[in-house]
Automatic annotation (TrEMBL):
<dbReference type="InterPro" id="IPR051288">
    <property type="entry name" value="Serum_paraoxonase/arylesterase"/>
</dbReference>
<protein>
    <recommendedName>
        <fullName>SMP-30/Gluconolactonase/LRE-like region domain-containing protein</fullName>
    </recommendedName>
</protein>
<feature type="transmembrane region" description="Helical">
    <location>
        <begin position="15"/>
        <end position="33"/>
    </location>
</feature>
<keyword id="KW-1133">Transmembrane helix</keyword>
<dbReference type="InterPro" id="IPR011042">
    <property type="entry name" value="6-blade_b-propeller_TolB-like"/>
</dbReference>
<keyword id="KW-0472">Membrane</keyword>
<keyword id="KW-0812">Transmembrane</keyword>
Length: 406
């Protein structure tokens, strides 16, 4: 069943603060979650009535299937120039190519001009960014953030390069080769110009990143999972830690290694707050203070969280999947299975009260798509505040859905 709606702000749900780590991932979800007391989304009678009336705030959704918008794991919206950027993969590649980190292939950065009238031939003026000839290597992308630095649009992307051989006497074999690639975009030509490649032992299993508003500091999740290879998508214990890297110097170091089990999503807002989400259903908020990670707050709900994004009002857009088994099946065969998703928006409550139970975050249901009717296997959602549109994409989907509030 697909239900699209936006709760009235006067009748919103509240997200309760998180109070501890829950060590569970997708294939353990059903076994344990029903018996655990997790930080969760609370709902009053008025809230449930608002959800039932949500059809009055419906969304009209259209799906755009296009080779350039296949397998888009990360999206970023440029509010100034009204372009949506996505790191995407070609799902038509043979499975052995998708699984082998040492096979040379290139992911791409796709662009949608979101205010262009959809044409019959090329909806939203879709195109792919070029990469300058002086970039050495291929792109196998697994994380994206971007900021306007002065008059430049700069991209930071996690890249899984082919493994390198270790030939010293103490250690023989292959060494995984994960890097952060930094590009400036020539917007006139649509070309990514290489600025720096960051490589470090503190990037041993990066799966996501976020950059502070001025572009100096990069926080990276390392989770011991792999995007490619024989262990892609498999349970690996849940451990994760955060590293911070400096754009200018390229130096990286670990900043936290506790409490990040199954960390998956990461985003930063305009105030320099960093949000880290986990498939256990928790979101933790931090800021960097003198190079150290400072805890600010946390909240959670009783559904597994995938990727998160932030809109122009600094509200989070959270993609959840009610059935992790469906997403697991979709990851193993993007051609067939479809996983449902539920999209929420969250905003910090504005209150003068000092009481802890008056703090927290309000949650608003945006779209409930439990059967994947609106967008097969959504893993990321982006909200355009200006036009009240949602863009839904998925790592295991062959396109993107554009939903307009009615």
């Amino acid at each position: 069943m697909a239900r699209a709606g936006l709760q009235r702000r006067g009748q919103s749900s509240r997200l309760v603060r998180g109070t501890g780590a829950v060590l569970i991932f997708a294939i353990l979800y059903r076994i344990f979650f029903q018996g655990l007391s997790l930080p969760r989304l609370t709902s009053s009678s008025a809230d449930r009535e608002a959800e039932q009336e949500a059809s009055g705030f419906s969304w009209s959704c259209t799906r755009l299937e296009h080779p350039l918008m296949e397998g888009c794991e990360h999206l970023w919206l440029d509010e100034k120039n009204r372009r949506l950027y996505g790191t995407c993969s070609n799902l038509s590649r043979p499975e052995d190519t998708l699984n082998d980190v040492n096979v040379s292939h290139r992911d791409h950065v796709s662009v949608m001009e979101i205010d262009s009238p959809p044409g019959q031939y090329n909806a939203y003026n879709l195109y792919q960014l070029d990469i300058a000839d002086d970039f050495d290597g291929e792109l196998n992308l697994h994380g994206l953030d971007a900021h306007r630095i002065g008059d430049r649009l700069r991209f930071w992307m996690i890249n899984y390069r082919p493994s390198t051989m270790i030939t010293n006497e103490e250690e023989l074999g292959e060494k995984l080769n994960y890097t952060i690639e930094i590009f400036d975009l020539d917007e006139d030509t649509g070309t990514l110009l290489p600025v720096k490649t960051i490589s470090s032992d503190a990037l041993d299993s990066p799966n996501n990143l976020a950059v502070d508003p001025i572009g100096d500091e990069i926080i990276v999740i390392n989770d011991y999972f792999t995007k490619v290879g024989s262990f892609r998508g498999k349970l690996a214990g849940g451990e994760a830690y955060l590293s911070v890297c400096m754009t200018e110097s390229g130096e990286c170091r670990m900043v936290a290694n506790n409490g990040f089990e199954f960390a998956n999503g990461m985003v930063s807002d305009s105030q320099g707050r960093f949000y880290v989400s986990a498939t256990t259903g928790t979101v933790v908020i931090y800021e960097l203070e003198h190079g150290q990670l400072k805890f600010l707050d946390s909240f959670g709900q009783q559904m597994a969280i995938d990727r998160i994004s932030v809109n122009a009002e600094d509200n989070l857009v959270i993609t959840t999947f009610p059935d992790p088994f469906e997403l697991q099946k979709a990851s193993s065969n993007p051609q067939e299975p479809v996983a449902g998703a539920i999209i929420f928006s969250t905003a910090r409550q504005k209150t003068d009260s000092r009481e802890s139970d008056e703090q927290g975050y309000e949650a608003y249901l945006l779209i409930e798509d439990e059967d994947g009717e609106l967008m097969p296997s959504t893993t990321i959602a982006v909200h355009d505040v200006k036009t009240e549109r949602l863009f839904l994409a998925g790592k295991f989907s062959r396109g993107i859905s554009i939903c307009t509030r009615q």
